[in-house]
Amino acid sequence: MLCPCGSELEYALCCQPLINGQKTANSPEQLMRSRYSAYATADADYLYRTYAKASQAQQNLEEIAQWAAMTKWLFLEIHHSSAIPQNADELPVVKFSAHYLLGNKYHKMTETSRFVLESGQWRYLDGDVSEFDEVREIKRNEPCPCRSKKKFKQCCGR
Ligand SMILES: [Zn+2]
Ligand SMILES: [Zn+2]
Protein backbone atom coordinates (compact mmCIF):
# COMPACT_ATOMS: atom_id res chain seq x y z
CA MET A 1 0.00 0.00 0.00
CA LEU A 2 1.02 3.59 -0.57
CA CYS A 3 2.01 5.53 2.50
CA PRO A 4 -0.94 7.43 4.06
CA CYS A 5 1.27 10.53 4.40
CA GLY A 6 0.98 11.19 0.68
CA SER A 7 4.66 10.81 -0.20
CA GLU A 8 3.66 8.40 -3.02
CA LEU A 9 6.17 5.93 -1.64
CA GLU A 10 5.29 2.48 -0.39
CA TYR A 11 4.29 2.53 3.26
CA ALA A 12 7.04 -0.04 3.97
CA LEU A 13 9.63 2.37 2.55
CA CYS A 14 8.24 5.53 4.14
CA CYS A 15 6.52 5.87 7.50
CA GLN A 16 6.20 2.20 8.51
CA PRO A 17 9.85 1.71 9.62
CA LEU A 18 9.47 4.78 11.85
CA ILE A 19 6.20 3.55 13.35
CA ASN A 20 7.75 0.10 13.87
CA GLY A 21 10.68 1.66 15.65
CA GLN A 22 13.24 0.44 13.09
CA LYS A 23 14.18 3.99 12.16
CA THR A 24 13.91 7.41 13.73
CA ALA A 25 12.73 10.56 11.98
CA ASN A 26 15.54 12.63 10.56
CA SER A 27 13.51 15.85 10.46
CA PRO A 28 10.45 17.40 12.11
CA GLU A 29 8.53 16.99 8.85
CA GLN A 30 9.34 13.30 8.70
CA LEU A 31 8.13 12.87 12.27
CA MET A 32 4.98 14.85 11.48
CA ARG A 33 4.27 12.68 8.42
CA SER A 34 4.82 9.49 10.39
CA ARG A 35 2.45 10.72 13.09
CA TYR A 36 -0.20 11.38 10.46
CA SER A 37 0.36 7.84 9.13
CA ALA A 38 0.08 6.50 12.67
CA TYR A 39 -3.30 8.23 12.97
CA ALA A 40 -4.32 6.73 9.64
CA THR A 41 -3.29 3.24 10.76
CA ALA A 42 -4.60 3.80 14.32
CA ASP A 43 -1.25 3.23 16.01
CA ALA A 44 -1.86 5.08 19.27
CA ASP A 45 1.29 3.74 20.83
CA TYR A 46 3.50 5.48 18.30
CA LEU A 47 1.54 8.71 18.69
CA TYR A 48 1.96 8.57 22.42
CA ARG A 49 5.67 7.89 22.36
CA THR A 50 6.43 10.62 19.82
CA TYR A 51 5.07 13.33 22.09
CA ALA A 52 7.72 15.39 23.81
CA LYS A 53 8.06 14.46 27.47
CA ALA A 54 6.47 17.74 28.56
CA SER A 55 3.36 17.00 26.47
CA GLN A 56 3.13 13.28 27.11
CA ALA A 57 1.81 13.80 30.63
CA GLN A 58 -1.35 15.44 29.24
CA GLN A 59 -1.98 12.63 26.80
CA ASN A 60 -4.06 9.55 27.28
CA LEU A 61 -3.28 6.48 25.20
CA GLU A 62 -6.90 5.32 25.23
CA GLU A 63 -8.20 8.66 24.00
CA ILE A 64 -5.63 8.80 21.22
CA ALA A 65 -6.63 5.28 20.15
CA GLN A 66 -10.35 6.14 20.17
CA TRP A 67 -9.85 9.31 18.17
CA ALA A 68 -7.64 7.60 15.59
CA ALA A 69 -10.10 4.73 15.20
CA MET A 70 -13.29 6.77 14.80
CA THR A 71 -11.74 9.06 12.19
CA LYS A 72 -11.22 8.21 8.56
CA TRP A 73 -8.06 9.98 7.52
CA LEU A 74 -8.23 11.21 3.94
CA PHE A 75 -5.00 12.99 3.17
CA LEU A 76 -2.31 15.26 4.48
CA GLU A 77 -1.18 18.57 3.05
CA ILE A 78 2.12 20.04 4.16
CA HIS A 79 2.16 23.81 3.72
CA HIS A 80 5.52 24.69 5.17
CA SER A 81 8.44 23.17 7.05
CA SER A 82 10.85 25.57 8.68
CA ALA A 83 14.58 25.04 8.55
CA ILE A 84 16.18 23.73 11.73
CA PRO A 85 16.94 26.92 13.73
CA GLN A 86 20.58 27.62 14.58
CA ASN A 87 19.53 29.06 17.89
CA ALA A 88 18.61 26.33 20.37
CA ASP A 89 15.86 28.51 21.89
CA GLU A 90 13.86 28.45 18.70
CA LEU A 91 11.87 25.42 17.67
CA PRO A 92 11.27 24.19 14.14
CA VAL A 93 7.67 24.21 12.94
CA VAL A 94 5.65 22.37 10.34
CA LYS A 95 2.35 23.79 9.08
CA PHE A 96 -0.06 21.25 7.68
CA SER A 97 -3.69 20.46 7.05
CA ALA A 98 -5.17 17.09 7.91
CA HIS A 99 -8.26 16.15 5.94
CA TYR A 100 -10.53 13.60 7.51
CA LEU A 101 -14.04 12.29 7.86
CA LEU A 102 -16.10 11.71 10.95
CA GLY A 103 -19.05 9.73 9.68
CA ASN A 104 -20.12 11.59 6.55
CA LYS A 105 -18.78 14.95 7.77
CA TYR A 106 -15.69 16.24 6.07
CA HIS A 107 -13.19 18.13 8.22
CA LYS A 108 -10.05 20.04 7.52
CA MET A 109 -7.78 21.02 10.37
CA THR A 110 -4.83 23.31 9.83
CA GLU A 111 -2.14 23.33 12.48
CA THR A 112 1.33 24.72 12.99
CA SER A 113 3.20 22.14 15.06
CA ARG A 114 6.33 22.67 17.08
CA PHE A 115 9.01 20.04 17.45
CA VAL A 116 11.80 19.51 19.88
CA LEU A 117 14.86 17.30 19.87
CA GLU A 118 14.99 14.99 22.90
CA SER A 119 17.90 12.57 23.35
CA GLY A 120 18.70 13.03 19.68
CA GLN A 121 15.17 12.25 18.49
CA TRP A 122 12.50 14.55 17.13
CA ARG A 123 9.36 14.79 19.22
CA TYR A 124 6.07 16.61 18.78
CA LEU A 125 5.74 19.33 21.39
CA ASP A 126 2.48 21.09 20.59
CA GLY A 127 0.63 22.96 17.91
CA ASP A 128 -1.53 25.98 17.18
CA VAL A 129 -4.67 25.19 15.28
CA SER A 130 -5.11 28.14 12.96
CA GLU A 131 -8.16 27.00 11.11
CA PHE A 132 -10.52 24.49 12.56
CA ASP A 133 -12.82 22.52 10.71
CA GLU A 134 -14.38 23.26 7.53
CA VAL A 135 -17.22 20.92 8.36
CA ARG A 136 -19.39 19.86 5.49
CA GLU A 137 -21.65 16.93 4.96
CA ILE A 138 -20.70 14.78 2.00
CA LYS A 139 -23.62 13.53 -0.08
CA ARG A 140 -23.54 9.93 -1.25
CA ASN A 141 -23.25 10.79 -4.94
CA GLU A 142 -20.62 13.48 -4.54
CA PRO A 143 -16.99 12.86 -5.51
CA CYS A 144 -15.17 11.37 -2.55
CA PRO A 145 -13.10 13.98 -0.65
CA CYS A 146 -10.15 11.57 -0.54
CA ARG A 147 -9.48 12.53 -4.19
CA SER A 148 -9.96 8.99 -5.52
CA LYS A 149 -12.30 10.37 -8.24
CA LYS A 150 -14.89 7.80 -7.14
CA LYS A 151 -18.28 8.65 -5.75
CA PHE A 152 -18.36 8.97 -1.99
CA LYS A 153 -20.81 6.06 -1.62
CA GLN A 154 -18.45 3.79 -3.58
CA CYS A 155 -15.35 4.88 -1.69
CA CYS A 156 -14.86 6.21 1.85
CA GLY A 157 -18.61 6.54 2.40
CA ARG A 158 -19.21 2.80 2.11
ZN1 LIG B 1 4.95 8.30 4.78
ZN1 LIG C 1 -12.54 7.97 -0.70
TrEMBL record:
Gene3D superfamilies in UniProt: 3.10.450.50
InterPro entries: NTF2-like_dom_sf, SEC_C_motif, YchJ-like_M
Membrane-spanning segments: none
PANTHER family recorded: ADENYLATE CYCLASE-ASSOCIATED CAP C-TERMINAL DOMAIN-CONTAINING PROTEIN, UPF0225 PROTEIN SCO1677
YchJ-like middle NTF2-like domain ranges (all copies): 27-127
Organism of provenance: Thalassomonas actiniarum
Signal sequence interval, chain numbering: none
The name this protein goes by in its record: YchJ family protein
